[in-house]
Amino acid sequence: MKYPVRCLPLVLAAFALHANAQSLSPAWDEYRKKEEAAQAPVQDQSPAQPQAPAAPQAGATPQAQPYAAPAASRAPVRDQGGFFIGAQGGRGWIYDDIEQRAAAVSAGYRWQTGPWAQVGVEISGGRLDSTREDGFLIPEATYGAIGANARFNFGDSRWFAVVRGGYFSADQDNPYGGDFSTDGGYAGLGIGVDINRHFNVSLGYTAFVYADDYYYDDCDYFDDCRFNRADTVMLGIEARF
Fold it and tell me: Is the pTM of this model over 0.70?
């Protein structure tokens, strides 16, 4: 029985060398990896669900959220072109410092040309009532006009500006004889506010410039003429369709 006991160290040494040789073998390493992979627990491959942020605890300092830049905004296109009619009333001056009551009507069409701009055409007609100054009669005058009309909104607000210009012809009946008629150009500027999509009010100034003969019946020469101006300031209402 002593022989096996004496050989036991040799057997253990041989087994250790054999185990060490197997651990150094590439085939053994591959086999060990496959065994470990087969015995590893299967993990859940489903996509992770987003977790709701936890409610802040009492007394905790709130964390700043990352800033998200707002999307770039575009100016709205105000599709408000179309037909319009208006009526105006106020005061007018044909002669210096002699005030006459004035009234006018207008109609036309404007096209939308930008986010806040409209351009169109207009026809108008008006009257300056007769009045008296120092015992003298200032006769009534009437006129008709045709021209261009442009409207510009101040951004996306309800306030707007109006620019007008064109040609006019006027007549004035003189009870003392010598009826007067003339023509020329007009230009106007106004400011107003939209009450709603179809109605607005405005205040406008218009200048009427014309040439009058000085010595002769016709303005054949520049020196024969003098240029005069009549003015009106009127409050107006306008309806759009």
Answer: no
